[in-house]
Amino acid sequence: MAAVTYIFMVLFFILAGYVVYFVLHDSDKVLNNSYNKRQDLLAKRVTKGSILSDASKVLAKTVTDKKGKETREYPYGGLFAHTVGRVSHGKTGLEASEGYTMLTSGIHPLAAMVNRMTGEKDPGNSVVTTLNVKLSQTAGNALGSRKGAVVVMEPDTGKILAMVSKPTYDPNGLTDAVWKKLTADGEEDSALYNRATQGLYPPGSTFKLYTALQYIRENTDHSTFRYRCRGSIGTGSERIQCYGGEIHGRMNLTGAFAKSCNVFFCRIGTGLDIASWKSLCEAFYYNKTIPLENLEQKASRFSITEHTSKGDLMQVSIGQGDTLVSPLQNALLVCAAVNGGKLMQPYLVNRIEDFAGNVVSENKPVLLSEPITKEEAKELKKLMRATVTEGTATSLLYGNYKAGGKTGSAEFQNGSTDSHAWFVGYGEKGGKKLVVSIVVEAAGTGSAYAVPVAKKIFDAYW
Questions:
Q1: Residue 400, Cα to own-chain centre: how many angstroms?
Q2: Dihedral sign, CA of 301, 306, 311, 314?
Q3: Residue 11 CB coordination number (10 Å)
Q4: Which residues partner with 129 through β-bridges?
Q5: Residue 87: which of 117, 51, 52 has the closest Cα?
Q6: Beta strand spans in 89-141 (E)
Q7: Separation between Cα atoms, residue 230 and residue 55, nearest integer Å
Q8: Which pLDDT belongs to residue 120?
Q9: Do 135 and 436 touch, CB atoms closer than 8 A?
Q10: Which of 25, 257, 344, 461 is most open to solvent, judged by the fewest CB atoms within 10 Å of its CB?
Q11: Are 113 and 36 in contact (CB under 8 A)?
């Protein structure tokens, strides 16, 4: 009898623990799920609140016509389509993840009672995001008509200030005919696709950040090591050249990073401890999704093993091969390096306000981990700074801020001669720091096509 009692007590505590866990952790996720019918019931008596920028500019709002019909309006058209999302033809973005939040009203209960009697709807709460309109417009204009993505973050808070994906679409008046065109077979633009979180690209030379960091960890003499670049390394089908066949000569780690010497990085990459290297990458969310619940995403991939051939290891060392990365994930190591080794959780929702502007709840910066030491962070910043002072991003040397980063030209895996242009890096001035991750599809070199986008963003911010 006592055993049965104890079993029931254990089951009770397990159930109670789950209820507490659900309330604290999963309740918002379930309530904001677009399939939750409770939202449909709330929509009958609450006018859905707005989505606002960091400066409270309207990114999405509910408009009611004379007949009482409600529609969602997006003042900036397609600029925020992939982050703010849509409600027509399936909810996406913040429209989906914060739907219940915006259908909850902070109105006084007595006022709500009056509204019930008069047939008026309660005003829903608004979502104030971290998104900055000026930086988003700058990023969108800088990409122009090219396909690609831009992510702009505060490394010391994790706030996403801009997330732009192109091509895009206008969520206003999304008719069936437009939808059919957007989803047609063979539609090459993939305008519905958020390239910033769902696009997976070979990182090219931006991955040399990881190769360099792992080399630094394993070699106390990394500052004195020299290797002579003769323009290529390897033989036959495994032969790898420096970009344009350039011969860099005798190089140290800083010079090789700044000049993006493939030969040097193939040499050091083939001697790295594979298990440790993989652990480093996974500490920055390779092979798993980033903790950002508001948007759909695909996990970046890093798949080497102890059986990986030397030729494939050389490819991996310079960001080619099977390694794939999203623009959001590619910003994380730079964020940690600029933030003294601390990696903050990326987030899009700053706070929730009621109809009168009173703060209902507010998100605070969250420390995810400290995957690198302060000393390693300094080493990486030194390397990235050299890219600007003496390497492939010298156009960033002339701003009224201090910048650093890494360019990349990532070759297609299908044998095409085109390459994606990459730049990941930072700018800082007067205690303020900004990190950018930029990919321009099938454009060419990172220095020619991605760095100018970064410069426009930094110039607009400072």
A1: 26
A2: positive
A3: 10
A4: 349
A5: 51
A6: 122-123, 126-129
A7: 53
A8: 86
A9: no
A10: 25
A11: no
CA dist 273 and 282 (Å) reads: 14
264 contacts 256 by C-beta, under 8 angstroms: yes
Residue with tokens 């979180």: 197
Higher-confidence position of 41 and 328 = 328
Average pLDDT of the segment spanning 7-27: 57
Lookup: tokens for 120: 């008026």
Question: 119 falls in which pLDDT band (50, 70, 90)?
Answer: confident
- Strands of 312-457 (E only): list them: 343-344, 349-353, 359-362, 367-369, 402-411, 419-429, 432-440
For 105, the token pair is: 């009203």
Which whole number is the average pLDDT over 370-388?
98
- Tens of pLDDT, residue by residue over 129-158, are 999 999 999 999 999 999 999 999 999 999
Helices 208-218 and 374-390: crossing angle in degrees, nearest 10, is 130
CA angle 138, 141, 144 (to 5 degrees): 150
What is the distance between the alpha carbons of residues 327 and 438, in angstroms, rounded to a whole number?
A: 7
Using the structure block, give the residue that is written with the tokens 């993006």.
260
